[in-house]
Every structure is written in structure tokens, then in C-alpha cells.
Write a structure and sequence with these properties.
Order of helices and strands: HEHEHEHEHHHEHEHEHEHHHHEHEE
Structural class: alpha/beta
Distance between the termini: 61 Å
Strand content: 5-15%
Strand order of the largest sheet: 6-11-7-10-9-8
Number of strands: 11
């Protein structure tokens, strides 16, 4: 007990000294304080328990945190939006009372906006609330949302529902009634620290591609997407693999964006060949645009490709949806969807994603960034 007290006292003294030094430095140099690193979005009933413990753990680890109690009294929601924008990570803590708060949902809407633009990473935390109730707006959580929705105009309601759907499907943490909060907080701090140490400060990573051979003679519709020059491919591949390795055993949905003919297909083919041996199930769907036009693409097309070594098409067609889901969840999958041109194609092929086993890798290539906004965890953009 004495040792623990001494350790906490040393930490307090160190933090106090660091803050004093920082303040003095800022005052003498005239520079503004550093930007917030983590913004916490939560309902007030958690302020004095879980959130206060989480904030203490983050700050003890040297991570700068912003919660609304740090805002000057009278500060409006627009100013808080600025706090979100200057943050690198947002923690969205969904609790049983969360959906009663317009303030929480307005913040979440803004968080989703910055996530979509690649400026922010969001980590959802489900605090003693069922994850599916948040995703599908069911149960007590859903009831509270629908009660609030009756008081709002349609556009605002749609944005809130969209934000809840997108954020709740991100990789995150779940705390139940039997969870040890101290252990969960340790894991959350580790995840935040890992995100802050990634190579890029944004989730949209830019990969410059030197491609002098791509002229104006080919149209965007007809250009081959296999033109990545051999002298640059190793560097690009290393950049891509380095980012993939940062996800370890977590599921990742990655979007690769770039003009036709810039080499996305070539790069993903090489990556697929290198990684397919690590997955029991894998599928590379070349030219989804043409597949969609042909009329052959349906909700079971990808499942047939993933299960081709185990079942013939007729067997997959005859399976009940739940049985098919159980089969797919047995193993991690590697999936590449090449040349996707609209969100409907993703919806048809991936469904709601409940069949994807944790640790799977889904890569979507497209020339239109808006197609993958809200559909992927990471975006890598190719420049010509």
C-alpha cells in the first residue's frame, strides 16, 4: 500500500512538473497549447465513475484528453465541434442513457463526418449495453433513440441514425455487468496509444505513384488498372503491408482509391498472392463493375467463392442464411473487391458483415472515394 501510494505521488509530482514546464514554455514562446489527442463522447451519468477513471488512466499515460467539463461554461456545441476536429482519436461511449441526449448524438454526427473525411479515428465503447442494440437500434437503447427521434426533424434523425450505424460497427470494446472495468480501461489505453503511434496522423494515407506512361489517350472507363511501374511497386507494397501489419489480428476493411490505370489492381494482386496462404478462405473478385453489369452478382456470389473448395454452388444456394453465416464465421477471410463503382455493389457482396470472422482482411479498390466513405476503416489514396 505504501509503495502504491509512493508511486502515485511520484506520478502526480511528475505530471505537475511537466504541466508547469509546458505552461512556462508556452508562455515564454507565445505558442498555443498542443492540440487535443483524444475527445471523449459520453452521456453524463458516466462522468464521475467510468469516464473519470478512463481520463485518469489516459492522462497518466501522457495522453491529452478533452471532455466537455473542460470547456468554459456557456461554450456552445459549435466550439466543441472544433475540439473534435483538432483531436486525433474520438472515444464514443455508448451507455443505456446515451440515445436520450441530443448533445451526444450531435457530437457523434460530427465525429462520423471527420472519420469519413479521414481526419479522425473513432473507437466505440459499449458500456453495459448490447452492441447489436446500438447497431440496429433495438432494445432499451433503441427505445430511447426512437423516443428522442419523435421530437426531431427527418434530416437530423437520419444523420443521427447514420452516425450510430457507422461508428458502432467500428472495432471497439464491450463492457458487460461482469467486466472488470480496470482491466478494460488498460486495454482501451493500449489501443489509443497504438493508434497515436501509427505512422500517419490521418487515416487517409497518400501513396504517390510515378506513372509517366499513363497519358490522356485512354478514358477513365477504358484505362487498364495494371500500369503500376515495376520500379515503384516494391516501395508501395511495403507501405501497404506496414499499414496492414499495424492491425495485427483485428478485422480491417481497407479502401484503395485512385484513377483508373494507376496500378491498384496490380498492387492488390501481388498482395493477394503473398497473403492468401495465411487465410483458409480467400477470394479476389476482379472488375466488380463488369460483374455487376453482367447480372451474375447476387448476395451469395462472394460466399460461393469463399466456400468453393468445400461446397459446390448448388449446396451454398440451398443453405439457410444462418447456416451459411455459421460456416463462414469458422475461418478468417481474405477478400479483394476490385473496381467497385457504387455502394450497392458493396452491400450486395458483403451484406451487413455479420459473417466476417475477426481478423479478416477486406480490400476494396475504386476510383471514386465517395463509394467507400463510411464503408471502410482505412483509406489509402494513390496520387498520379
Amino acid at each position: 500500500m505504501i509503495a502504491l501510494f509512493s508511486h502515485r505521488l511520484l506520478l502526480l509530482c511528475k505530471n505537475s512538473l511537466d504541466q508547469s514546464t509546458m505552461a512556462a514554455s508556452s508562455s515564454s514562446s507565445g505558442q498555443s497549447p498542443p492540440h487535443n489527442q483524444v475527445f471523449i463522447n459520453f452521456r453524463g451519468e458516466l462522468r464521475t465513475n467510468f469516464v473519470s477513471h478512463l481520463v485518469e488512466a489516459l492522462e497518466t499515460d501522457g495522453i491529452n484528453v478533452f471532455i466537455d467539463e473542460k470547456a468554459p461554461r456557456g461554450e456552445d456545441i459549435a466550439t466543441l465541434f472544433g475540439r473534435i476536429e483538432e483531436s486525433k482519436i474520438a472515444l464514443a461511449i455508448f451507455s443505456i442513457e446515451y440515445a436520450k441526449s441530443k448533445w451526444c448524438l450531435d457530437e457523434l454526427e460530427k465525429i462520423k463526418e471527420f472519420v469519413d473525411s479521414g481526419k479522425l479515428v473513432v473507437i466505440p465503447i459499449f458500456y453495459k449495453v448490447d452492441t447489436n442494440d446500438v447497431k440496429d437500434l433495438n432494445g432499451v437503447f433503441g427505445n430511447k433513440f426512437w423516443e428522442l427521434a419523435r421530437t426531431c426533424k427527418g434530416e437530423k434523425f437520419d444523420k443521427w441514425r447514420d452516425a450510430l450505424g457507422v461508428v458502432s460497427r467500428k472495432f471497439g470494446f464491450t463492457l458487460t455487468e461482469t467486466s472488470k472495468e480496470s482491466e478494460s480501461i488498460i486495454q482501451i489505453v493500449k489501443a489509443v496509444t497504438k493508434e497515436l503511434t501509427l505512422n500517419s496522423t490521418t487515416r487517409e494515407r497518400v501513396i504517390p505513384i510515378d506513372n509517366p506512361g499513363a497519358g490522356d489517350e485512354e478514358t477513365a472507363e477504358s484505362a487498364s488498372d495494371s500500369a503500376l511501374p515495376s520500379f515503384g511497386i516494391e516501395t508501395r507494397l511495403n507501405q501497404l503491408e506496414e499499414m496492414l501489419n499495424s492491425y495485427a489480428d483485428r478485422t480491417l476493411k481497407l479502401g484503395l482509391v485512385g484513377m483508373p490505370g494507376i496500378g491498384k489492381t496490380t498492387l492488390t494482386k501481388i498482395l493477394y498472392e503473398k497473403r492468401e496462404g495465411k487465410f483458409v478462405r480467400h477470394a479476389f473478385l476482379v472488375d466488380v463493375r463488369e460483374l455487376s453489369k453482367s447480372g451474375r452478382m447476387n448476395g451469395r456470389y462472394l460466399a460461393k467463392e469463399l466456400l468453393r473448395k468445400e461446397y459446390v454452388d448448388e449446396v451454398v444456394d440451398s443453405m439457410q442464411a444462418e447456416s451459411l453465416k455459421i460456416h463462414l464465421l469458422r475461418n478468417k477471410s481474405l477478400v479483394i473487391l476490385d473496381d467497385v463503382t457504387n455502394k450497392k455493389q458493396i452491400e450486395v457482396l458483403l451484406g451487413n458483415g455479420d459473417w466476417i470472422k475477426e481478423g479478416s482482411l477486406i480490400i476494396i479498390t475504386t476510383s471514386d472515394r465517395s463509394v467507400i466513405e463510411g464503408e471502410v476503416d482505412e483509406i489509402m489514396r494513390f496520387l498520379d
